[in-house]
Design the sequence.
């Protein structure tokens, strides 16, 4: 603080791989419960529920007190998979679910959003952020931000601890078009982590260059009064990063880490597919998204192939 320069304070070295991955998954589960339960007793909880990995883990963590929790899902055409799966989970496991219609921002609200984010963040959140205020007006809103750290979000199938990591390669994995200022900043960041295993470098890049610079701008600017992100924790990150790569690599729409956390918390939740319909609708869903948002196809191609 004396000279306002940035110094790395975590992690300061390689994170050892555990030989007890199930125990590490158990720590992730207990950390989520330890973070959410005290808020439930004071102000109440509203937990986001989608078709994805992180909210399924949140639901598993909430099993001991799920009858006291309200689950919320955004109800829109774009999020129809989330609506379908959340409704199925609610019916099967007796959850109190509230579907919240999407609300578009007015021109004035969009200007305020730009101001709150320092004029550095637009996209879907700019257009629909008023919806967030309706998700949990009087309770803590629990989300799964940064859970992708446990899913090797920047990994490619061929990556291992010896993969060469370049500024251009990192920039491509973020799905962004090339920009000289961005590449220079990424190159400076990369020098700080040289010598660490490549998979850990990719994980830290996701956490520090993407989630910190994008995800939390969204949270700081959000109209949600009480945001709560139980997966944002050094204890959780350490447990995730200690897992063997085969526990974290994606296999279809999920991985062994997510499935083990759910299995320890509420195994019956695995009866319903994660991240997909599990039938013919998956093919039509992907085709519809590609036709409606062709830039997303280009973004995916940049992430996978540079």
Sequence:
């Amino acid at each position: 603080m004396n000279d306002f320069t940035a110094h790395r304070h975590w992690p300061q070295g390689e994170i050892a791989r555990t030989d007890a991955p199930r125990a590490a998954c158990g720590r992730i589960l207990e950390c989520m419960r330890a973070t959410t339960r005290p808020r439930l007793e004071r102000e109440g909880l509203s937990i986001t529920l989608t078709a994805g990995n992180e909210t399924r883990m949140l639901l598993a963590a909430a099993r001991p007190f799920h009858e006291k929790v309200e689950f919320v899902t955004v109800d829109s055409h774009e999020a129809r998979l989330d609506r379908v799966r959340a409704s199925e989970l609610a019916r099967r496991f007796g959850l109190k679910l509230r579907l919240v219609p999407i609300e578009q921002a007015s021109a004035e609200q969009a200007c305020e959003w730009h101001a709150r984010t320092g004029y550095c963040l637009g996209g879907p959140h700019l257009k629909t952020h008023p919806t967030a205020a309706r998700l949990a007006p009087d309770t803590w809103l629990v989300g799964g931000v940064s859970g992708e750290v446990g899913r090797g979000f920047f990994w490619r199938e061929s990556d291992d601890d010896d993969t060469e990591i370049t500024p251009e390669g990192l920039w491509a994995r973020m799905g962004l078009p090339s920009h000289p200022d961005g590449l220079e900043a990424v190159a400076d960041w990369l020098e700080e982590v040289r010598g660490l295993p490549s998979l850990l470098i990719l994980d830290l890049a996701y956490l520090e260059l993407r989630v910190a610079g994008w995800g939390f701008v969204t949270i700081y600017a959000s109209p949600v009064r009480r945001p709560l992100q139980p997966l944002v924790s050094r204890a959780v990150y350490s447990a995730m990063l200690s897992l063997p790569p085969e526990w974290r690599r994606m296999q279809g729409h999920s991985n062994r880490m997510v499935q083990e956390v759910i299995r320890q918390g509420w195994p019956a939740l695995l009866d319903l597919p994660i991240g997909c319909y599990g039938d013919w609708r998956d093919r039509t869903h992907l085709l519809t998204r590609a036709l409606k948002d062709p830039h997303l196809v280009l973004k995916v191609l940049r992430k996978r192939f540079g």
Summary: The mean pLDDT is 91. The longest strand covers residues 70-75.
